[in-house]
Amino acid sequence: MSTPPPDLPGKLEHFIAGQPGESADGGTFEVADPVSNQPYATVAAGGAEDVDQAVAAATAAFTGGPWPDLPARARAAILNRIAAGIEARAARIAELETFDTGLPITQARGQAARAAENFRFFADMAVTLHEDAFRSGTSQFGYVIRRPAGVAGLITPWNTPFMLATWKLAPALASGCTVVLKPAEWTPLSAGLLPEIMTEAGLPDGVFNLVHGIGEVAGAALVAHPGVPRISFTGETGTGRAIMAAAAPRLKGLSMELGGKSPCVIFADADLDQATDSALFGVFSLNGERCTAGSRILAERSIYDALVTRLGSRAERIRVGDPADPGTEIGALVHPEHYTRVLGYVQAGLDEGARLVAGGNRPGGLSAHLESGNYLAATVFADVEPSMRIFREEIFGPVVCVTPFGDEAEAVALANATDYGLAAYIWTGDLARAHRVAHAVEAGMTWINSHNVRDLRTPFGGVKASGLGREGGPHSLDFYTESRIVHVPLGDTHVTRFGA
Ligand code: NAD
């Protein structure tokens, strides 16, 4: 058992039209923490009726409330107050997130800070948002009016749940949409803080609604609901496919942020100290449960053996343990089901003949109170062939594959040899080559000689099976708004006279 944070809520409820409440049918499910794997709370299990009520509240706040037409400055003031509310609770958010997800506390603190920044950033975007105008010579003029799309359905995963919820909430609210958030069922705890943060900030009732529940029930009801024109989804590629199919009959606007299997390409002329640090951090931070994890390290053959040795010995020293301990580098994996899945990939790697260099099992020396947790030592597989499942499929845990390449062309071919295309990391001292490879690698986001540092203005998203659409800065606002064009003649209107 780990020590739970003080004052844990014993039950988590929906929040609809400014009021907390149970499910219409009284349904609940239990949620456990990943260290004890014992239930700590009962959560309202939303169904179609709860989603109906939440969408009705969001619709009323959209059509009858002040929110969509509030002057940008007033809307931004509320978003900034939400950011302040998050900052005031940053320590609490981090401790709840760590307890619920198993993320190391130092990394959870960073996520809480980023959540506040999401609101501050989109508050600024709201006041600088402009609408285009087009002049066609001297004859015609057109101007764009940008309207919020309506009720946005926001469906989030269990990795960094609070931060990812705010990454959708902030632009949706900045755009003037009203929202229904459906958090992941394995990690509902931190979302429970949002109602009081939103209310305290002065967000009108019904603008923010929260429905807990199982994906295939509550999530599916939100996707199918005729009153929800936008669905922003972050999660697995398979779930994304199911959501796209379910949304097709109603032609909903979809933003799909899906899985990844991102390459970290290291050439012999790179700064190998930095590249090693970055490669290790890139795959083992956030427990490896990170969509942009550099989970395939591709190393030029002349440095391959030395790099494998170095990655192995560093991985063995990575501190795995109590997520609440500030010294912990890898915490507990989120859920026993996910833990079993990740261990299954370790077994698949062994069965397919990859060479296990580090980890592969529970770390030794865990103190007795951690024995029940979902722990896996930082795991490094070398000599991984592109045909192997561990090379192609997303593991979403602290497991990295290392594969050698001969030349630039082979590096690019290997980098592209998966269905995914979310991120890529390139390490080389040759700047021209860095850009060539960056252009050739199929990835929505590439970092050259650096790790995953985000600029919130830039397009975030993947190609291939990693997603559809972009979030970030103006891309998010485009998604949550409809641009409509109004045409006006500047002089006489000449019309060809049919039937005259
Ligand atoms: P998941 O797809 O299992 O679940 C995500 C959310 O979808 C949950 O809230 C779940 O309840 C809901 N859901 C499940 N089935 C549904 C359905 N039929 N209809 C509607 N909603 C449904 O994903 P996960 O396991 O929670 O998260 C891990 C995945 O998320 C990984 O693949 C990871 O790469 C991906 N991810 C991607 C990004 C990105 O920005 N590209 C960021 C973080 C995580």
Short description:
The chain has 500 residues and is of the alpha/beta class. The chain folds into two domains: 11-258 and 466-485, Aldehyde Dehydrogenase, Chain A, domain 1 (3-Layer(aba) Sandwich); 263-448, 3-Layer(aba) Sandwich (Aldehyde Dehydrogenase, Chain A, domain 2), CATH 3.40.309.10. The protein is 38% helix and 20% strand.
Q: What does the model show?
A:
There is one protein chain. Helix 2 (72-88) crosses helix 6 (194-201). The chain contains 15 helices and 21 strands. The chain has helices at 48-63, 72-88, 90-101, 105-128, 161-174, 194-201, 215-224, 237-247, 272-284, 301-317, 336-351, 389-392, 408-415, 431-440, 473-480, and strands spanning 11-12, 14-16, 19-21, 28-32, 39-44, 133-136, 140-148, 151-155, 178-182, 208-210, 230-234, 253-257, 263-266, 296-300, 355-358, 379-382, 399-405, 423-427, 445-448, 467-468, 481-489. The strands form 5 sheets. It has a 7-stranded mixed beta sheet with strand order 15-16-17-14-13-18-19, sandwiched between helices. Helix 8 (237-247) links the parallel strand 11 and strand 12 (253-257). It is of the alpha/beta class and 500 residues long. The protein has 2 domains: 11-258 and 466-485, Aldehyde Dehydrogenase, Chain A, domain 1; 263-448, Aldehyde Dehydrogenase, Chain A, domain 2, CATH 3.40.309.10. The relative contact order is 0.14. Bound molecules: nicotinamide-adenine-dinucleotide. Nicotinamide-adenine-dinucleotide binds next to helix 7 and helix 8.
